[in-house]
Write a structure and sequence with these properties.
Helix content: 40-55%
Distance between the termini: 59 Å
CATH class of the largest domain: Alpha Beta
CATH topology of the largest domain: Beta Polymerase, domain 2
Largest sheet: 8 strands, mixed
Number of strands: 8
Shape: rod-shaped
Number of helices: 11
Radius of gyration: 36 Å
Strand order of the largest sheet: 1-5-6-7-8-4-2-3
Strand content: 5-15%
Length: 395
Amino acid sequence: MKTKSPSTPPQGRRFFNKSKLHDDARKVCSQLPKAELTMFGRGSKGVTESADAAKIAALPAVKALVWLNIDGSHVPKETPCDAEHDWLTMLAEVFGFHELAVEDVRNRRQRAKLDRFNDGSCTPHLFVVVRIPDANHPGETEQLSLFLRDNLVVTVQEAPGGDCFTKRMQGIEAASLRGELTAGLLAAELLDAAVMDYMAHLPGPEEEIEKLRARIKNTASDELIADFHGFRGEALHLLRDIKPLEDVLSHLASVEDDFVSPAARAKFKDALDHQQRAVDTLNHLADESKELMNLTLAMASHKMNEVMQVLTIVSALLIPPTLIAGVYGMNFQHMPELGWQHGYLFAIGLMLLLAGIQIWLFVQNGWWVNPFRFKKGGTISTLLTRGKHGQHRSP
């Protein structure tokens, strides 16, 4: 966790204040992110409503626990007004967030990290950045920024739609009804939901591995190798984004902080366990997909070797007949066998005899391959099936 050194607050023109919008503030365009405001009264369920600039500007006067969720902070470049800048400027001025934290929200390719701002230039608060799966683009992630201060949690999601917090509302409302919900516990529930979202976007490892194994048994093609490579790349991409979250959750679960209650630390520890399980699952998928990709390449190489072995045997068997035919096809005038009545049968018999001797030598040395034994699935497919059930070939 980082503590930012004192810095002078920005001196730019203020568009918002705590009670009302300035008359000369820029108009908010229709492309603004969707914002939802949830207020939790002690011993009651939360009340959720849509939020606009005026409602957000009035939030500092509210005494209840407040959760503001902005869904889809990314505004396309063709948007006619700088709507995102308006919203982030409003958040910084209304809630006293540090300018560096707001800048990290704008720069969306941040690693998971935790910062504590308590340097006198802003209202004391925690700022957490994590990356969560993007529901709109499987295999990709989006940035989730979380601000935590007394009685306030603000979450800013990069991509619109696919909210991963919906499934946690029941547990959050139950804690609120018991009077146990705090800003720290709410933040812990939300981060745990973000971690569990990784598991929701992954198939069961054994199920997926069996599907890949079945495809190997059916065929070994360039398309299959490309699929393995893409699957492993997706697992490594998710692993790269969730792995740094371990340091953030470990710190929140172990270090005492004014914003994190003992109940919240216990929840952060639970989220850390879920994160480690997700990392183990992704590591398993990446390792297994790499092994299966190598096995596919080995299978293709083995089948090519078998084909070359058959072609080599056929070529070796044709060498003596070709030599004999070449000798007697030279058309010299004085070749005694050419006038022999049984010369033709002798040549054919000699060819068959030499071929038989070659076959016997191949069998004796273990070089003989039955060219008619190839079938769909191949010997490696049989080996895969036997290996799956723990069986082994007899020596």
